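Hi, here's the filled form for the chain we discussed.

Project: internal
Contact: R.S.
Residues: 520
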Amino acid sequence: MDAPALPWYLRLALACFPLRWIFRAKGSNGRRLRLALEHLGPVFVKFGQILSTRRDLLPEDMATELAFLQDKVAPFSSKLAIQIIENAHGQPVSQTFARFDEKPLASASIAQVHTAALHNGSEVVVKVIRPNIEPTIRKDVKLMRRLAKLVRLTNDGKRLRPVEVVDDFKRTILDELDLLREAANASMLRRNTIEAGKLYVPWVDFDLTKRSVLVMERIYGIPISDTDTLKAEGTDMAVLAERGVEIFFSQVFEDSFFHADMHPGNVFVDITNPGQPKYIGIDCGIVGSLSREDQAYLAQNLLAFFNRDYYRVAQLHVESGWVPSTTRVNEFEAAIRSVCEPIFEKPLGEISFGLLLIRLFQTARRYDMTVQPQLVLLQKTLLNIEGLGRQLYPQLDLWKTAKPFLENWVKAQVGPKRFFDSVKQHAPSWITKAPEMPDLVHTALTQLQTGSKANQQLVDELAALNLREQRQSKQRTRRWIGVAVVAVALWLPNAENWLESVSTGQWLAIIAGLLLFLWS
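And the returned structure, exactly as it came back:
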């Protein structure tokens, strides 16, 4: 294996590795990388799926090999799949389905898919979770967490927040093992997108869906990665690419519920009308959502970015806490401008995102920008979407497509329309609670009055305690004065005949000191 990109000491170590003299590597670099990722397990297969969409960052042969990880991972035994299905339904497959095809239609890192037909004639696919996959995932994530703890000890460790990112990834990938959750996600996405007509999500048969088995409508479309067939069928690639961007932004900002696993193996195209192609999305195991605050900050950041208002971008980063509050906004603005300005008004095909990412990471390090774990899924999805757009239509003007959407969304979040929409949304709840308001107000006032009395009582008790402390302090002072007066009066030069030598004044002082001591 030639590795000219590696440092000289690593090349020397590889050359001296004894096993390289005995066993010679077979196959291309891409094929060996794909097989290695498959062997390492589902967590690493997911990483390979993301890489497969970045043909701008990888050699063509390596990207082609990694594309097999999307839906052509080595399948497991069909007998095991049938056993899992029968255990889930409590009856033979022949009773559940009118037809079941033992040969898998597709196989991925977490599950594999078989085609079947219901007794009512509907064509479906049956997704089955790989057996004993959860222990493997937990072991891989445990290793990742150990590595993350080591990364945390480095200079950039605190800023990158690796442990939080791994924990978030763990929750995401373990949720993907629950096909009931995936069914609910698919149903939600279908309801959100069915009216717009730009994305179709197949229906789910909830009666036959279990934790380890998912039964859903079989779809027919052209894989998004098969650009040759799409072009041969007369598909409008510009419209297809623009619709992909619109779907992404509408899911993130309008629905706050987005498909977060949009690699090419999960995306198909319906070209019934080639001039208005429609996306088909499957495998909804990983979805993401943003809080209202994250949505607002992200939208304002992107809009300011599209408007080249770099000062506003820097200001928003400080306000949101993504960079320290001590950051000089003017300096941060200049750094952002130097990274972003060269890529504006360029189509995707002319932008080197590899170089852009490197420069962004350098800027983040310089200004101690912390990683936001809640945005990791969004960033991963954005990488997938941008990679798909690059393959479909390299001339896509991302800025022109996304900017109008963000402008309309930001306008919708403020102003009279937003106010009246909020009133309309909450009015039923307010009307329901209205009869209870007088009692709630009376209770609140009573509690306030009771609290005021309690506070006054506490103040009085503190005042009394302070008065007692003052009295006790005065008593202690008088006692010490009395003792001192007696001691001074009794001190005489002639200690042997002290009674005769005590004057009348001294006797008065002794009596006064004793009285003062007794009175205190």
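Let me know if anything looks off before we file it.
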